[in-house]
Write a structure and sequence with these properties.
With about 90 residues, this protein is mainly alpha-helical. It has one domain. Helices cover about 30% and strands about 5% of the residues. Strands 1-2 form a two-stranded parallel sheet. It starts with 10 loop residues before the first strand and ends in a 16-residue tail after the last helix.
Length: about 90
């Protein structure tokens, strides 16, 4: 009930979108933010604090999915295809 009354705001979800709530893709907050930036035409995207190799258990699984999504979106280079540090 709150979302329809808010202006100049983009609400996102990982589930089924509705009303003015959009699903741009992504699994973590960070990769979703990068995808949104790309879709809105960002010329440069810099990710701080992403270490795709550190973490344990569920955290490491989430980071691996985030990396894969960023690679598929063309935001992050895939391993073996150049530097994984190059962010678009």
């Amino acid at each position: 009930e709150v979302v329809p009354r808010v202006r100049r705001f983009v609400a996102t979800t990982q589930c089924e979108p509705f009303d003015r709530v959009y699903n741009f893709g992504g699994f973590t907050d960070g990769d979703r933010a990068a995808i949104i930036a790309k879709r809105f035409g960002a010329k440069k995207i810099v990710l701080y604090g992403f270490d795709f190799e550190k973490g344990e258990g569920l955290k490491l699984k989430k980071l691996k999915w985030a990396r894969k999504i960023l690679e598929l979106e063309g935001i992050l280079d895939a391993p073996g295809q150049g530097s994984t540090q190059r962010i678009h």
